[in-house]
Design goal:
With 294 residues, the protein is an all-alpha fold. The protein has a single domain, classed as Orthogonal Bundle (2-methylcitrate dehydratase PrpD). The protein has 13 helices and no strands. α10 runs parallel beside α12. The radius of gyration is 18 Å and the shape is globular. It starts with 7 loop residues before the first helix and ends with a helix. The protein binds iron/sulfur cluster (SF4).
Length: 294
C-alpha cells in the first residue's frame, strides 16, 4: 500500500479476501514498501520486544524521574497486588497490563530506554498489554512479534491519516493511538478476525476522542504515566467487546478521520504547550514555579 493515506479497512478486506491473517498481509506489504525481506522486519520486532521487556523490568525497580515528580507507582501497585488475600478490582490480565504500562511510562520518565510505540509519552500501553497477554495466555515472543506487526501498521495508518503527536492532536493522538494499536494487537493475538481488529481499533479511538495533552510543567510525567495505564485498560475493554462480536458503528478509518477533525480544532493550550488543562491547575502551576526556580 504505497499510498500517502493508508486504510485499515483495505488491509482488512485484503486479509479477508485471501483468507489470511491480518499480520501476514501487513508484513507482506511492509516488506514490499521497505524493499526488504519479511525476516528483517521480524528480527527488528524481536529487538523491540527485548527492549520492551527490559523497560518493564527497569520500571518495576521503582525508578523515579529526575524532576522528582513521579516514580515508584508500578512497583507499589505490583507489591500491593501480590500481597496474600489482596482482592483486586481487576482480573489478572488487566492487573498486569496496568502494572507493566505504568512501569514502562515510569522508565521513560526516568530516562530509561523504551520503544516509542508510537511515542515516548505513550510507550507503556503496548508493552503493558502484550506482555500481560504473554504471561496469562501462554504466548511466545513469536506470537508477540505478530501482534507488534499489527500494532505497528495500525500506528502507520493513524500517522498517515492524521498524526501520532500530542503537539499536533492532543493526547488522543498519543495515548489514544497507543490504545488502538494495543487493542488491535490483542484481538489478533487472541485469534480474532481482521474485521474484529478493526472494531477494537475504532472502539478505543471513539472512547479516547478529544483527550487533551496537558503535561504538568511540560514534563512527560503527569498525567502521562497514569494515562498509559488508562489507555491499556481501554485497549483491553475494546478487545474484549470486539472478540465477543460487538461491532463499532463507526469504522476504524472514519474514527481516525474524526480524531483528525477534533485534533485540528483543538486549541493550542491543549496540545502539549502546558498552558491548559491539568497543567494549568493551581497545584501544577505551584509545582512548576518551584521546579523552574531551582
Ligand atoms: S499528555 Fe501529552 S505529553 Fe503526556 S502522554 Fe499525553 S500526549 Fe504525551
Amino acid at each position: 500500500m504505497a499510498n500517502n493515506k493508508l486504510s485499515l479497512e483495505k488491509y482488512i478486506e485484503w486479509a479477508e479476501k485471501e483468507h489470511r491473517a491480518l499480520y501476514e498481509v501487513m508484513l507482506e506489504d511492509n516488506a514490499k514498501d521497505m524493499d526488504t525481506a519479511p525476516i528483517a522486519i521480524e528480527a527488528k520486532m524481536q529487538e523491540m520486544l527485548q527492549v520492551m521487556q527490559e523497560s518493564i523490568d527497569f520500571g518495576l525497580t521503582g525508578v523515579r524521574s529526575r524532576s522528582g515528580l513521579t516514580g515508584g507507582s508500578a512497583k507499589t501497585l505490583a507489591e500491593t497486588m501480590a500481597k496474600p488475600g489482596y482482592k483486586s478490582l481487576l482480573g489478572p490480565v488487566a492487573q498486569d497490563a496496568l502494572v507493566y504500562a505504568l512501569a514502562v511510562a515510569e522508565a521513560n520518565a526516568a530516562m530509561g530506554r523504551i520503544v516509542a510505540a508510537p511515542t515516548a509519552g505513550a510507550s507503556g500501553v503496548l508493552p503493558g498489554v502484550l506482555f500481560s497477554l504473554k504471561k496469562h495466555r501462554n504466548l511466545s515472543n513469536i506470537d508477540l512479534q505478530k501482534g507488534l506487526i499489527v500494532a505497528g501498521n495500525i500506528g502507520m495508518v493513524i500517522a498517515s491519516r492524521f498524526s501520532l503527536s500530542g503537539a499536533m492532536g492532543g493526547c488522543q493522538a498519543e495515548c489514544g493511538s497507543a490504545g488502538a494499536m494495543a487493542a488491535g494487537a490483542a484481538v489478533s493475538l487472541l485469534g480474532g478476525s481482521a474485521e474484529q481488529v478493526g472494531h477494537a481499533v475504532a472502539i478505543v479511538i471513539k472512547n479516547m476522542l478529544g483527550l487533551v495533552c496537558d503535561p504538568v510543567a511540560g514534563l512527560v510525567e503527569v498525567p502521562c504515566i497514569k494515562r498509559n495505564g488508562g489507555s491499556a485498560m481501554q485497549a483491553l475493554l475494546a478487545a474484549e467487546m470486539s472478540l465477543a462480536g460487538i461491532k463499532s458503528f463507526i469504522p476504524a478509518d472514519e474514527a481516525i478521520d474524526a480524531m483528525k477533525e477534533v485534533g485540528e480544532k483543538m486549541p493550542c493550550a491543549f496540545r502539549e504547550t502546558a498552558e491548559g488543562g491539568l497543567a494549568n491547575t493551581p497545584t501544577a502551576l505551584a509545582w512548576a514555579k518551584k521546579y523552574f526556580s531551582k
